[in-house]
Design a protein that fits this description.
By secondary structure, the protein is of the alpha+beta class. It is built from 13 helices and 13 strands. A hairpin with a 4-residue loop joins strand 10 and strand 11. Helix 11 crosses helix 12. About 2% of the residues have low confidence.
Length: 406
């Protein structure tokens, strides 16, 4: 049997954890059973919805919308503020428990992780029965529900966990994608953000099946390396493995606190470009390539979020890191104004190490890739000789220069 992966995702984590915390403190009402939301200040009537209950969904309340709009849809909506310290504690408790079942855990956000079922396969009759046990035991021990996706590919396990909720287990093996995944709208595909959906719609690509059957070269022309990655995901192509060692143990990254809270995507892209430029230059100086890129956000509310992805081929170019960071940011961002942005690269290898190229390598044209490498190296040489401000990208000329912290 090949590798089998679980993706474990807490159902409406902030709402569930807040409801449990309030019940433990003597609150007689379970927020999960009434129209409720975690988000902004109800008295000042500002902020956005971070999480909502299932009854709130009946009023078409959506995550990320302003509290004022949510209240106009449901005037009796109960709104409570977030408690990020408590969420971190609940998350740690969940991960610690899961590691008692299998130590091969890769946490990818505060409320979701991958588990490698393969090392514990002999202890359970089947992956489905193991997932059912994990799901039920989490509810019995901790009081909240999770969805679990099962697959022979990590990306498909993630997709499966997003199927019908809550408190369910779904499979999405590679041989099931035509039936279960291809009919879904392309917006349902993991890492396919709003801007990608808009571009794909212009190409007449409406479903994941349309994307899977599209010409990957055409997708690369319109969406660059991100287009090829989406095509691979639509076809269930993903050779990544569980990364149980925290990526923070070895990596190169930069972050910047913005002069003002920002909710304009163009401005955010400019900051990400400056960060990517800095991180890529440090990778080149260190003689490293990075397999993993992660993005960190600190919101104006001081809450934090992060997202990461593994690249099919390691990189040290500004372009690769920038486009990956933008993709991650748009997947993660909940529209709350941003106070801090960071990019981190990890799973570093020496630039001289032989690299196994994938069949669908996102550097399809070696000449273009070599041109990008030469350009980056030329920029590095100019900055080294004449100072870091001696050469500036045209798109950054009229932007505030972020001040980085290592």
């Amino acid at each position: 049997m090949g590798n089998i992966f679980f993706h474990i995702d807490v159902n409406s984590a902030f709402l569930s954890w807040t409801a449990l915390d309030l019940l433990e403190k003597g609150n007689p009402t379970d927020l999960r059973l009434i129209p409720s939301a975690v988000g902004g200040d109800i008295e000042k009537r500002h902020g956005i919805v971070l999480a909502k209950s299932i009854p709130a969904k009946a009023y078409h309340i959506t995550t990320g919308e302003p509290i004022v709009r949510a209240l106009s849809k449901c005037p009796n909506l109960t709104v409570v503020p977030p408690d990020h310290t408590m969420y971190a504690r609940k998350s740690a408790e969940l991960m610690d428990y899961l590691k008692t079942i299998c130590p091969e855990i890769e946490q990818v956000s505060i409320d979701e992780c991958y588990m490698d079922f393969t090392p514990i396969s002999s202890s359970y009759p089947s992956p489905m029965q193991a997932a059912q046990f994990i799901k039920d035991s989490i509810y019995e021990k901790m009081g909240f529900t999770v969805n679990i996706g099962i697959s022979d590919k990590k990306v498909l396990a993630k997709m499966a966990s997003d199927f019908k909720k809550p408190n369910l287990v779904h499979t999405l093996y590679a041989n099931e994608i035509k039936q279960k995944m291809w009919p879904l709208p392309v917006s349902s595909l993991f890492m396919c953000g709003k801007s990608s959906v808009e571009e794909l719609h212009k190409l007449g690509i409406l479903t994941i099946g349309d994307l899977a059957c599209a010409n990957p070269d055409i997708l690369s022309l319109h969406l660059k390396s991100h287009g090829k990655m989406l095509w691979e995901y639509a076809n269930g192509i993903d050779n990544s493995k569980i990364e149980s060692v925290p990526s923070e143990l070895k990596g190169i990254g930069n972050s910047t606190t913005l002069p003002n809270d920002v909710d304009d995507l163009d401005k955010i892209h400019h900051v990400l470009l400056a960060l990517a430029d800095s991180v890529a230059a440090r990778l080149r100086k260190a003689g490293n390539l990075a397999y993993m890129v992660s993005v960190e956000i600190k919101y104006a509310t001081f809450s934090k979020a992060s997202h990461q992805t593994t690249l099919p081929v390691p990189t040290q170019t500004t372009e690769d890191i920038y486009h990956t960071a933008c993709m991650l940011f748009e997947e993660l961002w909940d529209k709350t104004p941003v106070r801090l942005l960071g990019i981190r690269t990890s799973r570093l290898v020496d630039v001289s190490e032989p690299i196994q190229l994938s069949l669908f390598d996102h550097h399809e044209n070696p000449k273009d890739y070599e041109k990008q490498k030469k350009l980056d190296n030329a920029i590095d040489d100019i900055k080294k000789k004449y100072g870091k401000n001696a050469i500036v990208r045209g798109s950054m000329l009229y932007q505030d220069s972020p001040s980085f912290k290592e």
